[in-house]
Amino acid sequence: MNSALPRERGTLTGGRSAWSVALSGSRPVRVPPSGGFVVDHVARFMVPMRSKGETLLSMNRSHGGATCQRQAETPVERLLSSVPAPACCPALVRTLASPGDTGSWLRCAPIYWLWALLVCLLASDGGGVRAMGAELASSRVERVYERCQDACVDVLIDGRHSGSGWFADAQGVVATVGHLFRSGKPPIEVEVMSRKHGRLEAVFVALDRGHDIALLRVKPVGGGFVHLRLARQAPSVGEELLQFGTPLFRTGLLQAGRLARPGTGFEYYADVEEYAEVAYLTAMMQGGTSGGPWVNARGEVVGIQSGVMSLDSKPTGVAFMAPAQPVRTLLETLRNSETPSIGLAVDETWQLDVSFLRKLPPRTEGLTVAQVRRGGPADKAGVRSQDVLMAADGARLRRVADMVRLVRAKRRGDSVLIELIRVGENGTKELRVTLDTAETALGKSSGEP
Fold first, then answer.
1. Which of 127, 364, 365, 378 is most deeply buried (CB count within 10 A of its CB)?
2. CA separation (Å) from 38 to 25, 29, 356?
3. Within 70-126, where are the H helices?
4. Do the beta carbons of residue 209 and residue 272 sit within 8 Å?
5. SS3 of residue 68 by DSSP
6. How far is it, in rounded angstroms, from Cα 109 to Cα 336?
7. How far apart, in whole angstroms, are the C-alpha atoms of residue 154 and residue 218?
8. Which residues are paired to 433 by β-bridges?
9. Are 217 and 190 in contact (CB under 8 A)?
10. Which helix (H) or strand (E) holds 392?
11. CA–CA dist 388, 386 (Å, integer)
12. For residue 175, how many C-alpha atoms fall within 13 Å in the half-sphere facing its CB?
């Protein structure tokens, strides 16, 4: 093996964007600030090793010589140029750069790439790496924000700002949350307010009460609406997500959160008297953000802001999100869902005060009825507040999800046999409950605005 780094020196001519060098061949070139150049016989791309001022060039043959064209620095190049090379670098390069020993190069090639990786990971202060990551993240977020600005809207109900939303297609379908439209209270007027298109009249299209999703439609415009696409893959636990909405009447704010756990759970929305299946995020959301999209780093919608966990009417830092998949289903059908409903809200027994638990048999596990929807299935079957549901169709009930998933697996008109304990009475009771649906006639028509 040759002991010295093969190199050829010459004089640079040309301007800022192109140089000619008196060499034959077409090997990559790197140019130090000194004005000379060094040709590396091995590397296909140049990792800056001699100084932070070196610039990556590409060489092309030109009339018996070589023309070097400046390349735009890629993020990887900028990152590598910000990191100091280890002290052993020259010796390693001399070993790798011997042109006459192909076997040595093949044996050493993995070491070369390992060194490049270590340069990134073991930089003395890591400042360059962190700065590069911050620069890339900032640029990406800016692009996401610009897209959301044009694709998102404010939802006005009877003239008042009630929530947020976003264009789900170019033809004018708008996605938002279902709880803006309460059962039995159809709005007089629905509008959306767009940054690009102003105030637009909208009609109600479809409702999915089981996931707290609603669709609206506005008249198409020439060229179509800027819209957001749904993500094909669900976010992972801990992944940072961004929410765009209008918190407390402050238009166009982008906020961050992270997925708090895999899968979904069920939250009872008292204003519509139904459970919504939601994902959980660590995020501090405010009124007015409901209906706004949660997007990933690529600007794809992973869900819709639906609600927050609160204590004494104050948010606790946990947000609820309607997942993307039921949004996709509603967009495909453009028809009301038919969410089976039993018409009650429950608490898990271990959530209750000790004074109430003492009225039950020791170590009772079940679901205590907290609220019964008037005229709903459970009410008609005779279920009362403070009844403790022990089983449904023979399956033990311990968690809220046990009951809701069992009910949601059925259809309207199906029945559920409930076994319960009633405080003050001995033994258990059995009641058969016939299910209805959570959606109402609201939005049944999908007429044009």
1. 378
2. 13, 6, 83
3. 75-81, 89-96, 102-121
4. yes
5. strand
6. 61
7. 13
8. 416
9. no
10. strand 388-392
11. 6
12. 35
List per-residue pLDDT tens for the chain, 449 residues long: 443 333 333 444 444 333 333 333 444 444 444 443 333 333 333 333 333 333 333 333 333 333 444 444 444 445 444 444 444 444 444 444 444 444 544 555 565 556 566 655 555 455 554 554 565 567 789 999 999 999 999 999 999 999 999 999 999 999 999 999 987 666 779 999 999 999 999 999 999 999 999 999 999 999 999 999 999 999 999 999 999 999 999 999 999 999 999 999 999 999 999 999 999 999 999 999 999 999 999 999 999 999 999 988 888 999 999 999 999 999 999 999 999 999 999 999 999 999 999 999 988 999 999 999 999 999 999 999 999 999 999 999 999 999 999 999 999 999 999 999 999 888 899 999 999 999 965 544 444 55
What is the per-residue DSSP string for 128-189?
HHHHHHHHHHHHHHHHHHHHHHHHEEEEEETTEEEEEEEE-STTSEEEE-GGGS-TT---S-
Distance CA 421, CA 103 (A): 81
State both tokens at 163.
């929530």
Beta-ladder partners of 259: 281
CB 35 within 8 A of CB 55: no
Helix 102-121 × helix 89-96 angle, to 10°: 150
What Rg do the C-alpha atoms of the chain give, in angstroms? 32
pTM of the complete model: 0.70
First to last CA, the chain: 80
Instruction: List the structure tokens of 290.
Output: 């409901």
- Interstrand relation of 274-282 and 253-259 (parallel, antiparallel or unpaired): antiparallel
158 C-beta neighbours (distance < 10 Å), count: 10
| Assigned token pair, 204 | 């109600």
State both tokens at 155. Answer: 């939802």
DSSP 43-54: -SSPPP-S-TT-
CB neighbourhood size of 125 (10 A): 9
Q: Which residue has the tokens 């192909």?
A: 102
- Residue 57: how many CB atoms within 10 A of its CB? 19
Residues 78, 174: Cα–Cα separation, whole Å: 41
Indicate the SS3 state at residue 339: coil
d(CA 321, CA 177): 10
Give backbone dihedrals phi and psi of 67, rounded to 5 degrees, phi first. -110, 130
Q: How many CA atoms lie within 13 A of 105 on its CB side?
A: 11
